[in-house]
Amino acid sequence: RIRSVVRGCGSYLPAEILTNEDLAKSVDTSDDWIVQRTGIRQRHVAAAGEMTSDLAIAAAKEALADAKVDPNEIDLIVVATSTPDNTFPATAASVQAGLGITTGFAFDLQAVCSGFVYAVAVADKFLIAGQHKRALVIGAETFSRLLDWTDRTTCVLFGDGAGAIVLEGVEQPGEASDRGVLTTHLRSDGRHKSKLFVDGGPSSTGTVGHVRMEGREVFRHAVGMITDVIEDAFAATGESAQSIDWFIPHQANRRIIDASASKLGIAPEKVVVTVDRHGNTSAASIPLAIAEARKDGRVKEGDLVLLEAMGGGFTWGSALLRW
Ligand code: ACO
């Protein structure tokens, strides 16, 4: 039987940092309000001309180096993004070309903030089927391009960035080693579209549009949805809040993260938090947090790591893996 094992990870953040104080100069907000309501202190913003594929390629290069894998050993690229360079071709195809890869195939996956968890689940299916050997799974976003910078209820929440992992299908004869993706659980419910959406697109307005959100409504649904799919992961594997080593949630909002961990009984010291410095980078937030927790030595080989996300759609999902 084949398991999808994480071989390496990487990340990229644009150089420019926008603090809460910077935002308070252009909209009626304050550092206090933003920190209290969200835990966000700053976010990174892509430079003019810096595209989602540029961020993705930088993160992917770091992940390939960390995995000691040559680009041409990659035969599957999944880029989770809601902010593609162009309507088409897929940003993943640009990433493939940018990395000099001409084998296998590349596609984008759109599940907004849940994109990375969806992408891990999808890549895992190709690998465990034995159809592909090594996948680059990337979350990359330039949400700054989708924001209405005059709307204080949304522009303070998001940031730009990218993160990537290399997943490899590894034969695991017997039960001795349980490394790799253990279980994934994906959900969506399109009835919630109006609570979090972009008011533009090729077939509706013909414009790019801006993020629109009923913040309270999103918050109200988030914790229940998140904890449901995590309970599914625990039920499928027999693992628990006690047995996991690290909880790496989508970084939307500190209050959602804390409420979810508390409801599940996950100890605060097991929770990886980057939202204070990155803001909500949508599909990029989990792989950015993974890369940080790997680089600083928290996540070690053999650790049991729980990923979770919820976002526009609504979409939501969990992935449990042993590093
Ligand atoms: N600065 C100052 N005041 C603000 C700001 C701001 N940036 N934004 C809103 N306000 C005001 C509102 O206008 C309102 O004023 P009023 O009472 O005079 O009408 C007041 O603050 C309270 O607004 P609420 O929207 O009720 O504030 P709430 O406590 O719900 O916090 C927030 C808003 C932070 C968006 C919260 O609802 C939330 O975190 N929701 C989850 C949404 C989320 O995380 N979305 C990310 C994308 S989805 C995802 O990734 C899961």
Protein model, in words:
It contains ten helices and 13 strands. It is α/β, with parallel strands linked by helices. The strands form four sheets. A five-stranded mixed sheet has the order 1-7-6-4-5, sandwiched between helices. Strand 4, helix 4 (91-98) and strand 5 (105-109) form a beta-alpha-beta unit. Helix 3 (52-67) crosses helix 4. The structure holds acetyl coenzyme *A. It is found in: Cytoplasm.
Helix and strand content put the structural class at: alpha/beta
- Based on Cα principal axes, name the global outline: globular
Helicity range: 25-40%
Our measurement of the CA-to-CA distance between the termini, rounded to an integer number of angstroms, reads 18 Å
Element order: H for helix, E for strand: EEHHEHEHEHEHEEEEHEHHHEE
| Count of DSSP H/I helices | 10
Biggest pleated-sheet summary: 5 strands, mixed
Calculate Rg over CA atoms. 18 Å
Mean pLDDT: 97
Q: What is the strand tally? A: 13
Strand content: 25-35%
- Low-pLDDT segments, ≥5 res: none
Adjacency order of strands in the biggest sheet: 1-7-6-4-5
How would you concisely characterize the structure shown here?
The protein is α/β, with parallel strands linked by helices and 323 residues long.
Describe the SSE topology.
Elements (H helix, E strand, L loop, with lengths): L1 E11 L3 E4 H5 L6 H8 L3 E4 L6 H16 L8 E5 L10 H8 L6 E5 L5 H14 L5 E9 L9 H4 L4 E12 L8 E9 L7 E3 L12 E3 L1 H23 L8 E4 L4 H11 L10 H4 L6 H11 L8 E8 L3 E8 L1
Parallel strand pairs: 4-5, 4-6, 11-12
Antiparallel strand pairs: 1-7, 2-3, 6-7, 8-13, 9-10, 12-13
Bound molecules: acetyl coenzyme *A.
Acetyl coenzyme *A binds next to α2, α6, α7 and β12.
EC number: 2.3.1.180
Protein name: Beta-ketoacyl-[acyl-carrier-protein] synthase III
Pfam family, one: ACP_syn_III
